[in-house]
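Reply to dn_fold:

You asked what the input looked like. This is it:
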Amino acid sequence: MFLTPSSSAALRFFASIKDGRGLKPSARDAGIDKEVGYRWLREKYLKSRRDGISASETIAELGFTTSRLMGWEAEVERPHERNHLRVDADQEVVFWAAIDRGQRMETAAIVAGVARSTAYRWAEKRFVELRRSGMIVRRCTILLQLTGPRVAALERRRLASVRKAAAAATAAQKKAVASSSRYADRVLLDVATEGQKLFRSRRAQYWQLMRDGLSNADACRLLGMHPHNGTLLREAAKFQIPSLNPKPEPSGRYLDARERLQIADLLRLKRSSRKIAVELGWHPSTISRELKRHRRPSGDSLPASAQHDARQQRARPKTRKLVANSPLRILVQRRLNRFWSPDEISGWLRKGYPDDLSMRICPETIYRALLLRDGEGLHKRFALKCAPGDGFVKRDGRDDSDEDPESST
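and this is what came back:
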């Protein structure tokens, strides 16, 4: 099948190139060979240059440069029409000079020594260029020395061509959007190289030997590895042997890796967040939050880092907020020393730090740190006085306004 630069695969290819990806990754995204990508880039470059756009502007529009540009530039001035339509360039100059002198189309064709069909073909080409530049039909009629019926026919053919191109672009866009799920599956099932297969096989054998009770040195010796490579594997796994249990299926409550790849792909295809939400069956606010969190300044999404961050956020057990955030813990502890209730502390932080989300905490988190056995971060001296719905009461008439129990003896 001959793929054209207006196909859905080309749409994804050019979108990926525009995002700054290389030729080979963009070709893989579109599911084509890299030489097909070179052909599309060459055709688009030549069309842009022949339309009068400079080389630097064309390169900036493509978002791509290659060593083949010199060869493409040499083709710009070459005749690119079919052989049986080629006419000497000097004859066309004579023809348009006669038109500029006010001669009719038929007379100008005789002066240039070309057939009338060739003259009308030149006139139609010039008419389309003038209309594309914004010139009105009446002005085109005067400049080209055409009759009213002939101009009306040319305008109908031009509009039909424009509608056909628009319909083809819309169909390619819809087809590209419909193939977004297949694109995500292809990326997830990316074929590994021989080196990657060997590394994954050796890594699996290494962890199996570790499960059998062998030391790092013995496992590496059996596999023909340097012990340092085994240490790197252990460090990557945080010195924990990976479980053999299969990963649980996505619950449907959160976006998964496949959906994040689709979001990035649809975003390259110029789909809005609301339309992406419709395609994936999620609420628009979910897509909006996902893009707000994981997006480059250039505008494209980062599905790999988004999936990694989501996996890290859902990892359990998590470090308690009052343990990880020392400034917040100190403020909460000082307010507890003054016998403020958790609800008062939560409200005070919300008003005192309206723009700093790291200094927010809900009352339940404070109660958990005080009352539960696994609660961490706060001193337990107020645990007996604290219960949901009850306030704090001063003990023995003492005012522990700024005393920090962790520093007291």
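DSSP finds 22 helices and no strands in the chain.
Hope that clears it up.
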